[in-house]
Each structure stands twice: as C-alpha cells, then as structure tokens.
Amino acid sequence: MRDRIEENEFAYELGGALAAISPEDPPRFMARTPHGYYDTALIRGELEKAGFSAVATGTRAQSSRAPSPRIAAAAYRQGTPLRNEIETRDAGKMDTAIEHAASAIAARHGKGEVVGKIQAHVISAVA
C-alpha cells in the first residue's frame, strides 16, 4: 500500500499544482485514496483488532520514471479517477491542469526524462 503523498514525489507535486489552480476546492483523490491510508501503527492495530497475528510492516522506496514531465502528469489524468475530480470541477480546465502539473514536475525534476521517489508499505499478517 502506498505511503503518504509527501513520500511520492510526482503525486505530491501534481496535488500542489492542482490546488494552485483550484484553491477553493482542489481535487484531492491522490491524497485521499491511494495515499490516504498510510499510518502503519494504525493499520497494525486494526489488523490485530480484526484477529490477525504476526503483523509485520516494512517500507520500500523506489523510483518512478517518465519520458517527460507532461507524460508523468498525463498518466495521472488518464490512469486514475483524478480525471473525474478535475472534470467535475471544470472540464474546460483539464489541459490547463495537466500543463500546470507538468510544470511543477519539471521545476523539480527537469524537462527531459524525469525520475521521482515513490514509497509504499508492505504489510503481512497471519489470519
């Protein structure tokens, strides 16, 4: 399961860029859903309360790569429900949102191929 959004650079930069163009109601899918359940102590407690034993957690960092900042940003638009949140707010801002996100990624990682940190938790338990 993914770690908090701050540990996942492209998703974090995308979220900040979208909040900048829609500050009154920013799309929060990435922070809320794939990156919203990350507290390993909470998860451990919930698993133990549910009757699991031998709960073990580990954290693993890797790198995410894309040929360009625009492709990284567009992947979130095309490959996640984030698209629905952007369209619900203003479908006409889709291209603007992605360009703004691509600029935020480029500002930190450069304009060519980009590499960003991704991090997840690995959790095992015995039923």
Written account of the structure:
The chain is an alpha+beta fold and 127 residues long. It has one domain (5-126). The protein is 50% helix and 21% strand. It is built from six helices and two strands, in the order αααβαααβ. It has a two-stranded antiparallel sheet. Helix 4 crosses helix 6 (94-109). The longest helix is centred in the last third of the chain and has 16 residues, at 94-109.
Keywords:
alpha+beta, globular
Widest sheet, order of strands? 1-2
- The low-confidence runs, each spanning 5 or more residues with pLDDT under 50, are none
Q: Give the DSSP E fraction (strand runs of 2 or more residues).
A: 15-25%
**Rough outline:** globular
Question: Helical proportion?
Answer: 40-55%
Count structural domains. 1
Number of helices: 6
The helix/strand class is alpha+beta
Mean pLDDT: 94
H and E order: HHHEHHHE
Radius of gyration: 17 Å
Cα(first) to Cα(last) distance is 19 Å
The tally of beta strands, per DSSP, is 2
Question: What can be said about the biggest beta sheet?
Answer: 2 strands, antiparallel
